[in-house]
Amino acid sequence: MTTPRTVYDGELRVHYCQFDVVSGTEDHVDFGGRTGQRNGLCIATTPGALFLVTGLHTGTVGLTVELHDTSPPIEYHWEEVVEVSFRPVSSRLAVVPWGDGALCETRLDVRDHRVRYCALGMDEARERESEILEGDLMVDRYLLQFWPAPPAPDEVIRQTSASAAYWHGLTAGN
Fold it and tell me: Which of 103, 108, 131, 138 places its Cα 20 to 30 Å from the Cα of 64?
């Protein structure tokens, strides 16, 4: 079993149901579209960057980012689970909220990795958005895990919510 190194475990402000992971010197990259993807939650079509989707449109979600030496087991409680291949363009890796600077940074070897993006509470966050905006309520949580692995097609491992189905459906026509 792999022992994770937790890079970040806290709150993330989201706008427009999104945030990014970038490598290199820029905190923002142009989103490369969804062409060639099966999943709609973790888009890896731009070299060295990930475009990630949340259930909540605007507000605060929970986020944990972990680095692993090998593939970690998939935890049963996550409602949505997708995986993509990712190769950073530099060793700098940053989580970047929409329209803001880096929330957290770490180092990641410039080589091929697998990324697992897990979500919990996407539909509930959409349904309760007005409550979330008015108070300190946090409904949806996300887990982002990285480990070295050869390139492979992206996968939808688990999908239970209407929100995830919607985003996955946007990739179906590509």
Answer: 131
Q: Which domains does the chain have, with CATH numbers?
A: 5-172 (2.60.34.30)
pTM, entire model: 0.91
The residue among 140, 157, 124 whose CA lies nearest residue 42 is 157
Token pair belonging to 129:
């958005």
Q: What span, in angstroms and rounded, lies between the C-alpha atoms of 146 and 151?
A: 13
Q: Give the other-Cβ count within 10 Å of 28's Cβ.
A: 13
- If one counts every other C-beta atom within 10 angstroms of the C-beta of residue 64, the result is 17
The span from the CA of 29 to the CA of 15, in Å, is 16
- What are 19's two structure tokens? 């945030």
Q: N- to C-terminal Cα distance for the chain?
A: 36
The pLDDT tens digits of the residues spanning 43-101 come to: 998 889 999 999 888 888 999 999 999 999 999 999 999 999 999 999 999 998 877 77
Distance CA 165, CA 116 (A): 17
Give Cα separations from 160 to 35, 82, 88, 122, 123 (angstroms).
23, 12, 30, 10, 9
